[in-house]
Amino acid sequence: MNVFARILRGEIPNKTVVDSAHTLAFHDIAPSAPVHVLVIPKGAYVDFADFAANASAEEILDFHRTAAKVCEITGVKPGEGFRAITNSGAHGVQEVPHYHLHILGGRVMGRMVARTD
Ligand code: AMP
Predict the structure, then answer these.
(1) Do 46 and 97 meet the contact criterion of CB atoms below 8 Å apart?
(2) 49 lines ligand 1 (CB under 6 A)
(3) Whose CA is nearest to atom 12 of ligand 1?
(4) Sign of dihedral through CA atoms 64, 35, 43, 11?
(5) Helix or strand or coil: residue 84?
(6) Closest Cα to residue 77, out of 114, 106, 47?
(7) Is 100 a known active-site residue?
(8) 104: exposed, middle or buried (C-beta count within 10 Å: 0-12, 13-18, 19+)?
C-alpha cells in the first residue's frame, strides 16, 4: 500500500489543510517551496489521467474546489501566484502512485521544466 493510501486510512499523520467529502489536502513532508501542499482524491486513482478518465463528476468537482480553497488558504491566490504540478509514471518522475496535485508558491518557481541538455 502506498504512503497516501496509508495517510487516508489514518495510519500516518499529516498536516491537513482541507479535508472534504472526496478530497484531502495536506502539507508536503519535504517542501520544495514556502508553500507546498498536496491535494489528493480519497479514491484510489493512480494519476491525473486515471482520475480524469474514471472519477465521478462529484469527485472531480470536489477535488478542484478543494484545490481552489488551498490556493486561498495559503494566500497564493489572490497573491503572488503559484504553480500546480502533477507527475505521472517514470517519465513524469512520480514517486507515489496515488494521484496528487502539488500546489507550490511563496517564491518565484523558476523554469517550468528543468532542461536536461
Ligand atoms: P511525486 O514525486 O509527484 O510522486 O510527489 C510525491 C510527494 O509526496 C513528494 O513531494 C514527497 O515529499 C511527498 N510525501 C511523501 N511522503 C509524504 C508524507 N508522509 N506526507 C506528506 N508528503 C509526503
Answers:
(1) yes
(2) no
(3) 30
(4) negative
(5) strand
(6) 106
(7) yes
(8) buried
Calculate the average pLDDT of the chain.
97
pLDDT at 71: 98
Cell 509514471 locates to 89
* Bridge partner list, 116: none
Instruction: Report pLDDT digits (tens) over 18-67.
Output: 999 999 999 999 999 999 999 999 999 999 999 999 999 999 999 999 99
Testing ligand 1's pocket by substitution, the residue of 39, 95, 103 carrying the most ligand atoms inside 8 A of its CB is 95
Q: Grid coordinates in use for 36?
A: 507546498
Say if pTM beats, i.e. exceeds, 0.90: yes
- The predicted structure's pLDDT at residue 114: 78
CA distance 68 to 62: 10
List pLDDT tens digits, range 49-59. 999 999 999 99
